[in-house]
Amino acid sequence: MTGMCLKDWLQTHLFDPLEITDVSWDKHGDVNTGAWGLLIAPRDLTKLGLLYLHKGVYNGIRILTEEWVTEHHTPTFPQTCRDVPDGAATMDIKFGRTVRGAIVLMEHLASIVWYFRKWIWLLQLLLKKRMEAEFSL
Predict the structure, then answer these.
(1) Phi-psi category of residue 31: left, alpha or beta, with phi > 0 → left and psi -120 to 50 → alpha
(2) C-alpha span between 117 and 105 (Å, rounded)
(3) What are the percentages of helix, strand and coil residues in the chain, rounded to 5?
(4) Residues 43-50: contacts with CB within 8 Å, 24+ apart?
(5) What tens digit of pLDDT does each residue of 7-34 get?
(6) 40 vs 31: CA distance, rounded Å
(7) Rounded to the nearest 5°, which phi and psi values hold at 42?
């Protein structure tokens, strides 16, 4: 529809306004995979979290409409379905919380949940190692 690959469109409309410059994304032929293969620094990944936290605004610039952010934070599942087990796939694109309390982006493909769970795990591991190094001096 836009004539741009997914990564290029996101670079222009999302990553550039968030000051994210070092992003790569796997391709299958000329098409970005979409469901996996996004490589982004943890610091830049937190900018996406800040964007949601501030309802689509980053550094005083509106990047996402507040309605879009609200819609994607509004539960569409019955109460009994919102607390999903770790690794479970869902049929909607929303943020959710696993039974262990990790916040994940839920998608109809389990790979998205798996991907963000691995990022959360990696960030926790890096923070733990950094704290161990700082306190062992």
Answers:
(1) beta
(2) 9
(3) 45, 20, 40
(4) 44/15, 44/18, 44/20, 45/119, 47/18, 47/19, 47/20, 48/18
(5) 788 888 889 999 998 888 777 777 666 6
(6) 18
(7) -55, -40
Taking alpha carbons only, the member of 132, 117, 123 closest to residue 42 is 123
Per-residue pLDDT of 81-104, as tens digits, reads 445 444 444 434 444 444 444 444
Q: Are strands 27-28 and 31-32 parallel, antiparallel or unpaired?
A: antiparallel
Helices (DSSP H) in the chain: which residue ranges?
A: 6-10, 42-53, 66-73, 79-82, 110-135
Which element (helix H / strand E) includes 95? strand 94-98
What pTM, to 2 d.p., does this model score?
0.53
Q: Is 7 within 8 Å of 16 (Cβ atoms)?
A: no
Residues 6+ apart with CB under 8 A from 125: none
Of 121, 78, 122, 84, the closest CA to residue 106 belongs to 84
Query: Which residue has 């309802």 as its token pair?
Result: 55
d(CA 17, CA 23): 14
